[in-house]
Specification:
The structure is a single chain. The chain is mostly helical. It has one domain. Helix content is 66%, strand content 0%. It has 2 helices and no strands. The radius of gyration is 17 Å and the shape is elongated. The mean pLDDT is 90. This is Nucleic acid-binding Zn ribbon protein.
Amino acid sequence: MTQEEIMLAYARKRRRRIYAVLVAVFLLFVGASAVGQIFGDRYGMVTAVVVLVGFLVFVWRDWRCPACGHALGAEFDQRHCPYCGTRLVR
């Protein structure tokens, strides 16, 4: 991959992560609440746990360096990969 392709891939990953956070928060509050009111509190809690675990698995699998594939860590605004040193933003 060229440096430009790596930067574009990282930008797409950041957008996906932002969308994933928004969807997870919406599903946690609205979805779990609606399921809890319709089917009972137990199912609302199960829905919340499933959404949270799904979000964590998505982030764990997706938040990786486009060049080397190592995890980028918890910091959202990475400038370069901590493993290979590839620049991720301009």
